[in-house]
Amino acid sequence: MSLELTISEAIKTAMRAKDKVALDSLRAVKSQILLLKTEALGKEVSPEQEIAILQRMVKQRKDSYDQFSAQGRNDLAEVEEAQMKIIEQFLPKQLSSEELETEMKAIIAETGAESMKDLGKVMGIASKNLAGKSDGKSISEMAKKLLS
Prior knowledge:
By secondary structure, the chain is mostly helical. It has helices spanning 3-17, 20-39, 47-70, 74-88, 97-111, 119-129, 136-147.
């Protein structure tokens, strides 16, 4: 089942449950998917593109949550956090730091990277292989830690 159909079913469930936060979050996701389909001129949206949309939306919610928390606006921060959790349900399971470290060591061995000079080579492969499983910031931090 495609993400769009899954989101549509989740929207129906949220409407029945009268869950306003879930409904708002899911409608935003569906809106982004439809926007991407429109830009693609009728071509099918790939699962990688769908994951990228979800990751971007989670990151936006996290950034907003951090800003609202810093300003003492806990009422708005709670809404952002709730939306972030709902959107995260549709992402693949995220790697733990131990799993990420294991994957990164394998990629470093595969590329033959030895120092920080090879960071770009490692990041290119790691970003592609770990897309959806971990965010770019975590991948970058682990690569820097292992290469230094």
